[in-house]
Design a protein that fits this description.
Elements: E1 7-10, E2 16-22, H1 25-40, E3 50-57, H2 61-77, E4 81-91, E5 95-104, E6 118-119, E7 125-129, E8 132-140
Antiparallel strand pairs: 1-2, 2-8, 3-5, 4-5, 6-8, 7-8
Helix pairs in contact: 1-2
């Protein structure tokens, strides 16, 4: 099995852009979520204490992707969760069922990097190739 990197950061004027990779759609969604939280905090300090279930429906695959990241960001901004492990149980063109593992943010232990405010549709791309899947997304900071 070829070991591929999870994501790369893209140069973007004022926001954060990432390109996530996956051998399949589930790995792509997991790696995009990992990339988002890796830009928010130092993930090596986050412990797997809590596991939240995420179930979402949307009109199409791109909306499922954006809704997934938005729901995770909401869990962080409104409820204080930091996640570092993602298990996609079911994923299709209009729905996702997944588990997100992590813990509540602790300012005493966690080191914060960027404050991501929103997931945008600006320059959003989800593409399948012979090597797997790629997603490009811009985070508003």
């Amino acid at each position: 099995m070829i070991n591929m990197k999870r994501y790369e950061t893209l140069d973007h004027t004022s926001d954060i852009g990432i390109r996530a990779f996956g051998r399949d759609e589930t790995e792509l969604f997991s790696n995009a979520a990992f990339a988002m939280f890796d830009n928010i905090t130092e993930l090596n300090k986050v412990e797997l204490k809590d596991c939240l279930e995420i179930n979402l429906r949307a009109e199409n695959f791109e909306e499922v992707f954006v809704s997934w990241l938005r729901e995770l960001l909401y869990k962080y901004s409104a409820e204080g969760y930091l996640f570092k492990k993602f298990v996609i149980k079911k994923l299709d063109k209009t729905a996702i069922s997944a588990m997100a593992g992590g813990e509540k943010a602790d300012p005493e232990r966690h080191i914060f990097k960027k404050d991501i405010k929103a997931i945008t549709y600006h320059e959003l791309k989800l593409e399948k190739s012979k090597r797997g899947w790629t997603a490009q997304v811009i985070f508003d900071v």
